[in-house]
Amino acid sequence: MDFPVDKDLEKVVAGVKDVLSAKVVKDEQGSIREVRVVTEGEKSAQRVARDITSAIRAQGEDVLISDIHVAQVTRGEWNNIVGERLRLNGLSYRTHGMSLECSVTLEYAGRVVTGTSNCTASHAESLRVAARATLDAISCCLPRFPKITLEGVSISVVGGVKVCTVVLSVLEKGSTQHLTGCSQVKSDARDAVCRATLAACNRRLALLLRENRM
Question: What's this model's pTM, rounded to 2 decimal places?
Fold first, then answer.
């Protein structure tokens, strides 16, 4: 079940000294369910939690200190996290009769994860399944990354260069946003599909990390 977030309170919490990012989740009755923050780590987690409690209560809201979760990093570590990009580490296919399975391995922040997807064995489907496997790997890397849907994959020639374009959609703030990514097709069109999918997601990664990665 997805619980609503309180953007106004998130701004209040984010204004607390040393807080780098904040997420405030409420339950169906409008009470605060949990508060998750990333801080620079100069103050103890208990002190940060007390400061956050005071800031929230000043807004006429209440929160249990046990519902405040603090992750502490250095400023340099936070900059590295926000600046991280998803990188393609590997791509493989296996056939099972008329079925085709694609596995995509990504590297993110020192982690290596694999996503998979299946389809009917055909050239057109092998392109789309590469994009879906890439999205599956992204969801493994970033569990709080918004759910992204593949809208289309196309290969075209622009200025004499073969290019892959991927269109994705993501539901954000009650409306559907489209993400697009491109990659030059060199030796393998399916590899280009993976890279185009990553390009589409990487453009929004820093923003989505601030809002969702906690």
Answer: 0.58
Count of Cβ atoms closer than 10 Å to residue 213 Cβ: 20
Other beta carbons within 10 Å of 180: 14
Q: Are 197 and 166 in contact (CB under 8 A)?
A: yes
One digit per residue, pLDDT tens: the chain, 214 residues? 466 888 888 888 888 888 877 889 998 888 999 999 888 766 788 899 999 999 999 999 999 999 999 988 765 665 566 566 678 999 998 988 888 999 999 887 677 889 999 988 787 788 999 999 999 988 877 666 677 899 999 999 988 889 999 999 987 667 788 888 899 998 899 999 999 999 888 756 655 555 544 4
Residue 123: which residues within 8 A CB-CB, separation 6 or more?
none
b/e code 76-85 from CB counts within 10 Å (16+ = b): eebeebeebe
Domain ranges of the chain: 7-80, 84-212
| CATH of range 7-80; options 2.60.40.10, 3.30.460.10, 3.30.300.30, 3.20.20.80 | 3.30.300.30
